Known about the structure:
Blueprint: E1 5-6, E2 12-13, H1 17-34, H2 36-52, H3 56-61, E3 67-69, E4 78-87, E5 98-106, E6 118-123, H4 126-137, E7 143-150, E8 153-158
Amino acid sequence: MSDVQTVKSGKVVAPTKFDKFRDNLQARAREVSRDKARGSEIVRGQAEKILAAQTVDEIMAADEGGTVSGLDFVDVPFQALGYELGESNDDFSSDLDVYANLRAVVIESSGDYSPGDEIIVNVGGTLVVTKLEALRAADAFPINLVIKKYGRVLKLRLAGERAIPGTTA
């Protein structure tokens, strides 16, 4: 996108911070998507886990990859170690057209998760990805977080933080 954008009415408007932010994220996600070695690393890592497994259950679970949807990780306190961007497809589009694979370590027992579990959390919500970018820019990783759900919207909160009474965010 250029610094000036022409709209149908003929008026010239400067792109917003959000427009520039989205364009930057999309360019970075395209770079990650072009990295063929990344997929090979994942497969090699899973093969190593299979070869190190001692029981049938461990062998069968070794290639699961530990990836979950952010929707399935709501209210699970975790330490966020960082993330990688990916390009969204038509099935999972957001305002940003990218998603993040968030590297997380569970810090409290919750449902099927135990402390120390290493999980990749796939999140694409605009507010979640925007907060991840702001945290990256602030050099805040690692940081203890939790995903909260407000209606249909997912938001990141500091682990242990409560919503302010009278608000939905």
